[in-house]
Amino acid sequence: MKIKIKLAAVFLTAILTLAACGRGGAGQAQFDAEAEGLRIVTTIFPSFDFVRQIGGDRVQVVMLLSPGAESHSFEPTPMDMITLSNADFFLYLGGDGETWVPPVLASVFAAQGHQALAMSLVDLVYEIDEVPAHGHGHGHDGHDHSTDEHVWTSPQRAILLVEALADVLSQLDPANAYFFQANAAAYIGELQLLDQEFISIVAAAGRNEMVFADRFPFRHFAIDYGLDYFAALDGCSVETQVDPATVASLIQLVREHDIPAIFYRELSGREIANVIAEDTGVAMVELHSAHNLSPADFAAGVTFLDIMWRNTERLREALWQ
Fold first, then answer.
1. CA geometry: angle at 182 spanning 51 and 201, to 5°?
2. pTM of the entire structure?
3. Each residue of 242-256: pLDDT tens digit?
């Protein structure tokens, strides 16, 4: 395995104002014109929560993705474009999951503005096999290599993102730099506790295989914690369809390795998981990637840490049987 980590943030100085109409992506209030502080737009929940944990009451942050919506098929509305045009900073995922971003940047940010590409803040490139049902995280010469933008699913990678975001906010608002850095340090301490819990769970487990009967956003997580993974679909593209032969191979794997539980991701239809569970009788366990929250969880103020601590229990449930 080869890991390349690159910290980068691209800063510009002003934003165009657009005139348009429509509904905002997350159905949230738009920026308060009377409030002070940085105005931050994010596309998905992890970056939204990282910014609010670091920025506290010194920032306004809006998430474009509606709670409960599929992040990989999101398209911005005219109101989203207005929100973007009024932002000081735009934090987006990039990669295959946000192909709509480059043309938006070319139009909304045609003049000078502020932007940061989350995938560039922590750019991890793993050498792995491109075989969905046998994605075990080990690199081999002669196979296709790819990147995975879901860096936050590993607390170890989330720490790097938080460090980089704290630096970004500090440069955008130097008067509040100490506040941002102090909040980031406290938050990183919480992420480190989470990291140690995952390490302990895997170390004490009787097995280290993850069978993911769904799209798979946990490659970084599996590699960082030494887990072998077998997934029905590599990555999270909604355009990719599962191969029946892959499902059959996962069923065979579950039986041969006496796997007690299979995973599915949040907000999933569970179609593949249902087929495998019905055929093998194993339990189905949700592992939450934090791409997005249900409307109820979002309204209740559920955080990234809340989600990941739930995941510790679910991983323990699956690996300790």
1. 75
2. 0.82
3. 778 889 999 999 999
